[in-house]
What does this fold into?
Amino acid sequence: MKVADLLKINRFSFEMMSKLDIKHKDWKFLELYQDYECLRQAKEKYSYIMAVLAEKYRISESTVKRVIKRLSREVIF
It folds into this structure.
């Protein structure tokens, strides 16, 4: 399979992501977001969640906050 073939198969998804201003590299943070959701459901405090996720994924707390904000955004088609 060539790159062009893969792009053709996923063209609609890429177009929608572009229109909705979704960053193509955010797929890397899906596990982080799942961990965030679990901790929120466990009623952990927000500051604790940010610290735990920052340490676990070896990124800054401000990066964790930005990622959570982006991935929590509602999408309207």
Observations:
- The chain has one domain: 23-77.
- The radius of gyration is 15 Å.
